[in-house]
């Protein structure tokens, strides 16, 4: 497959607010998007709630920003029914928030093992059942649920859905209203990735998002050492080609967790480099 031409501009870029988590509040993120020609935003719920959900909905609308996603909810596995119910209650709040701000999808992290448990199969079952129950609610609110498989290093504590294959299986099982978020950082290593992206593409609308950053060598922290696009080893244009060949033409979210580098820089400097790399690398 030939590689896509660079976009040359930011017309499909979305700012995931985690990228400037330490520098900017939500209002500053919106201003930053406007200054740097970024037409979409994907807020995290902490920033959203700190600003006020209704207020944020107006802020996005007044500034013509598309909300490509809302991060995040899920974490379904728990040792008892009360714990599982608590997780679902929070998920429903997140669905309401996503509806209020018109988010194109709600990012769902499966969550890891139930506390105190070593039973991964049991956790998988609780994720499936939790998703099924949440999906009923999300459908009535007209909010798409996007399962984001995370790198297997997070299986114990953040997400026990670690491959696109597993996410596709869940979507096949659960039906309409649920899809996948494809994050290059989490999935680039998977030899079945191309096949599973193509499989997702056979269901129109299943691919709900495409997230970019880069895998640094060495990676110094499991959570907060992601690279800027182009600074690592992920062949992002190849992955973007697969996703677009599968029919995805939505926003591409820049999502960089970087405690020791990008979070320590001026927010505008981060945006300048991110928009340049968006054009030259992706
Ligand atoms: Zn992501």
Q: Give the distance, in angstroms, between the N- and C-terminal Cα atoms.
A: 16 Å
* H-E order: EHEHHEEHEHEHEHHEHEH
Give the uncertain stretches in residue-range form: 1-7
Give the beta-strand count. Answer: 9
Chain-averaged pLDDT: 96
What would the principal axes of the Cα set say about the shape? globular
Strand content: 5-15%
Helix content: 40-55%
Q: Biggest sheet: strands, sense, closure?
A: 9 strands, parallel
Please characterize this protein's 3D structure.
The protein is of the alpha/beta class and 282 residues long. It has helices at residues 26-35, 45-51, 53-62, 81-101, 120-141, 164-174, 184-187, 193-201, 236-245, 267-280, and strands at 13-16, 40-42, 66-67, 70-74, 106-109, 145-147, 178-183, 207-212, 252-254. It has a nine-stranded parallel β-sheet. Strand 6, helix 6 (164-174) and strand 7 (178-183) form a beta-alpha-beta unit. Helix 4 (81-101) packs parallel to helix 5 and helix 8 runs parallel beside helix 9. Zinc ion (ZN) binds next to loops.
